Amino acid sequence: MRKISIVGAGRVGETAAQILAEEEYCREIALLDVREDVPEGIALDILQTAPFFEFDCAVQGSNDPRILKDSDLVIVTAGFPRKPGMSRADVLESNVRIIDEVTDHILAHAPNAMVLIVSNPVDALTYRVTQRTGWDRSRVFGQAGVLDASRMASFIAQETGFSALDITTMVLGGHGDTMVPVPRFCTINGVPISYFLTEERIDAINERTRKGGAEILALRKNSSAYDAPGAAVAAMVDAIVNNRRRLLPCVALLEGEYGEADIAMGVPCVLGEKGVESVVELDLNARERADFERSATAVRKEIEQLRSLS
Ligand SMILES: NC(=O)C1=CN([C@@H]2O[C@H](COP(=O)(O)OP(=O)(O)OC[C@H]3O[C@@H](n4cnc5c(N)ncnc54)[C@H](O)[C@@H]3O)[C@@H](O)[C@H]2O)C=CC1
Ligand SMILES: O=C([O-])CC(=O)C(=O)O
User: Fold this and answer.
1) Which residues are annotated as a binding site for substrate?
2) Consecutive 10-residue runs of the chain (310 residues): their mean pLDDT?
3) Closest ligand 1 atom number to CA of residue 229
4) ipTM of the complex as predicted
5) Closest residue to atom 9 of ligand 1, CA basis
6) Which residues form the Lactate/malate dehydrogenase N-terminal domain (predicted)?
7) Structurally, what CATH architecture does the domain formed by 145-309 represent?
8) Taking the complete model, does pTM exceed 0.95, yes or no?
């Protein structure tokens, strides 16, 4: 990949940019932000880590949307994070205006790019970008489940004492309190977690995963999470750049899968060089299906709110 742009050089955007540079996923990283001088400053700061991490890709920042020109991938982290006590949906009204403006910049300056949405509420905003661009869902998708699954894996590692390297997890649904951790698809080197953990402990891990973002926000106080979110973005970029065809939970527009359409939410996707290659339909049991439907109802409420703002 030649050029990756990040719109929103805030905490998540900067963290992601640093990892992308260190890993040299592309030859050029562009940072676009509305704060005067800030994207230039962040770009320089990242560039000056090059001798330590041994990369030589270009890193530039600007307030001028033309910096997006020729991007292969645009990552959108622009927008307000929630404050303690708020839900992610509480920033919908302020962030939809930002996301619309950013989408128009992408349409004008990077019409061939793929778009990875991170800004919250990520399901509704990903939906918004699919509608405003009219692009195929393979090119417009969001990050949520990769982060939620990594949180769940770290909780399982803490509870069991096993290495996080051996733990695989799956979290579906909307990126909110109704998200759906699926313990049936969580293993430690292929062994179901129920082999090591009681139902009660698994329920507690599910609940902690659902509230994972709020837990960090309450502890950090003046910022929501950005280290793990930045790493989650980088994991998705890695899958795309290296055409790994990884099975990752992504926010994707549903076209009948899981009995849902005209909605974007977290589902397992095959992620590779063309973006979301396909949505994989897992055979959910009755409880998982009910939880997924409850989550879809919550996301739909946000989408309705979006429509009323148009
Ligand atoms: N999907 C996920 O898993 C996660 C989503 N988030 C979300 O990502 C977003 C960013 O979070 P942080 O980086 O912590 O916030 P932040 O406040 O540190 O950064 C946001 C940046 O967006 C910029 N911005 C605002 N309007 C803009 C515009 N029109 N064009 C370009 N840039 C603009 C701001 O100047 C600021 O630098 C929030 O909405 C947050 O809730 C955060 C963590 C995880
Ligand atoms: O909690 C938030 O608002 C930020 C976020 O989406 C996360 O860390 O999962």
Assistant:
1) 82, 88, 120, 151
2) 97 98 98 98 98 98 98 98 94 97 98 98 98 98 98 98 97 97 98 98 98 97 96 98 98 98 98 98 97 98 91
3) 44
4) 0.99
5) 119
6) 3-142
7) Alpha-Beta Complex (3.90)
8) yes
